[in-house]
Design goal:
single chain; 287 residues; mainly beta; Porin; eight-stranded antiparallel β-barrel; three-stranded antiparallel sheet; 3 helices; 13 strands; 15% helix; disordered N terminus
Length: 287
């Protein structure tokens, strides 16, 4: 039998080293958290929405459903960092000579009076536009590609990033109503999608791609911190590199069958969205 012995001085030294290391790293870690805090201070809210899309992949007239959750970061540029104060003033000055006229040669005193009147003062922040960064995740279980040997529906999802301009008021409409416009993109990838190449079971994998999207959103404020919105968008999705692999190691996909498989996947679709958003002040008191 082998016994392991551990001396007491070694144990004490290990504990002492751990305490010293924690004390040394404590302050830098706190400094890092303090540096991150202003970044999260610009987190202004979040939204969740669903959409139904229509395109050449919506077979039999059935829509492509998506669900998205995202956080709003910003806005930036709504109130400029430079403050300009405009003040209108009026200045009057008078010159007068005071002397004793009863005797010649009497001393004379010259006096100048200056009177300044301020009419009004106005302070303005430079900058009128508003840019909001939106970051979240988008997912769908019903994407359909019009391609041979391809499943009717495939799951598709990825990181969603958008840049929105707004809010801007609508002419002759309620102040509760505003619109946004912007561009977005979803990073997506198809992984190990089961297909049937003649009598051979195979899998399809694609590279990661960015699907650009143009967006238009119409928001209505139902409460100070809550809004409902309608949206419309156009998305272009393309996978330019496809990899096929037989499921069974002993199987090989013949060249004649491989020639019938698509070399790329492409989908253009229009989406109609309905969602709900809230500001950080509505979720976290005191924000």
């Amino acid at each position: 039998m082998t016994m392991r012995r551990r001396s007491r001085p070694s144990w004490v030294a290990s504990v002492a080293l751990l305490v010293i290391t924690s004390m040394a790293l404590g302050r830098p870690a706190g400094a890092q958290l303090n540096g991150i805090a202003p970044t999260f201070g610009n987190l202004s809210g979040a939204a969740i929405w669903g959409s139904a899309g229509f395109g050449q992949g919506s077979k039999n007239g059935r829509p492509l459903f998506r669900e998205t959750f995202a956080a709003f970061y910003g806005p930036f540029g709504g109130r400029g960092d430079t403050v300009v104060t405009v003040t209108q003033t009026t200045s009057d000055s008078t010159d007068s000579t005071i002397g004793d006229g009863s005797a010649s040669g009497s001393p004379r005193v010259y006096r100048r009076a200056r009177i300044t009147r301020q009419r009004n003062s106005e302070t303005k922040h430079l900058g009128n536009g508003k840019v909001t960064l939106v970051v979240g995740y988008q997912h769908s279980t019903s994407y359909r590609f019009d391609a041979p040997h391809f499943p009717e529906m495939v799951p598709l999802g990825g990181i969603f990033v958008a840049s929105l301009l707004g809010p801007y008021p609508l002419p002759l409409a309620s102040r509760r109503l505003a619109w946004y416009a912007g561009v977005a993109g979803t990073v997506s990838r198809l992984s190990r999608i089961a297909i049937r190449a003649d009598t051979i079971a195979a899998e399809l994998t694609t590279e990661r791609t960015l699907a650009p999207e143009a967006m238009l959103m119409l928001m209505y404020r139902v409460a100070p911190s809550y809004r409902v919105f309608l949206g419309a968008s156009y998305q272009y999705l393309r996978f330019g590199s496809l990899t096929y692999r037989a499921v069974q190691p002993e199987d090989r996909i013949p060249a004649t069958i491989l020639a019938t498989l698509p070399e790329s996947l492409e989908l253009r679709s229009v989406h109609l969205s309905l969602g709900f958003s809230f500001t950080a002040s509505g979720l976290i008191p005191g924000r």
